[in-house]
Amino acid sequence: MMRKAVLWPNTLRDVNLELTKLVAERLSELNIETVIPGNMCASAPENAVISSISDAFNGADMAVTLGGDGTILKCANEAARYDVPTLSINLGRLGFMAELETGELGLLRKAARGEFEIDKRMMLDVSVIGGGDVVREEHALNDAVISGGATARVVELEVYASGERLMGFLGDGVIVSTPTGSTAYAMSAGGPIIEPGIENISVTPICPHELHTRSFIFSAERNISVMPLHRRGDNAYLTVDGRDAVFIKSGEYVKVTRSSLTTRLIRLKNRNFYRIISEKLGRT
Length: 284
Description:
The chain has a 6-stranded antiparallel sheet with strand order 7-6-17-14-9-10, covered by helices on one side. Strands 13-12-11-8-15-16 form a 6-stranded antiparallel sheet, with no helix packed on it. Strands 3-2-1-4-5 form a 5-stranded parallel sheet, with helices on both faces. The chain contains 6 helices and 17 strands. The protein has 2 domains: 4-116 and 268-281, Probable inorganic polyphosphate/atp-NAD kinase, domain 1 (Rossmann fold); 123-261, Probable inorganic polyphosphate/atp-NAD kinase, domain 2 (Tumour Suppressor Smad4), CATH 2.60.200. Helix content is 16%, strand content 39%. The longest helix is centred in the first third of the chain and has 12 residues, at 18-29. It has helices at 18-29, 53-57, 69-79, 108-112, 185-188, 273-281, and strands at 4-9, 33-37, 49-51, 62-67, 86-90, 117-130, 133-140, 143-147, 155-161, 164-171, 173-177, 200-206, 216-219, 224-228, 237-240, 246-247, 252-267. The chain is an alpha+beta fold.
């Protein structure tokens, strides 16, 4: 039986926290303590308390996100550190990873009783390397994107797989993604849709200026390195799971490897991946 849950609302989608308040009330009725990390909202709704991220996740039985896939990505980065499974309530447009819609809150009772399955998703460690040292490290559930930034400028990149040069090209950038991320930016860039249970790393160029450049799928044990060349005076930026872009200096490169962290998603309904794809993208 569950005793503690972390609520992770998206205040842009749940503006007045109406759904957050309702979920907190339902969980309270199920004798589950509800905690909201302090950076989520200014004040806690009734039946919930505000705490630091570490205090919120310590001893938690599950995290509940209220938003779209972007909200899940933000929560996953913290939940994975504490090995807390996540139940997602969809307030977004697509919601590939979301489990519940707003009209299905009655299923919270099943979650409280532990009547669910766990869908494990691999994650990536994304490091910026400069002078042989790690100058920045992040974790990704979806992807790492190396691009020319938001000004639609092209960037010249070289990509290596376990030290072997894979490709060099001029284009808008490259996406290194997990199977979970294959239905996000990578899919829009022409990459393959990959079943989440298959653990691998995909590399998808974004609008390359060479006809021979293609997507690649690698074993999850490969390490991928992306080196901006800066030969044309172009800038390069790293974005991990849609978070704020980081400038990659000359002489630095991005290394992506399989992470020891795992995102665990709570599944309460019997929906397979292919059915979700049909529902979210429409049948062809």
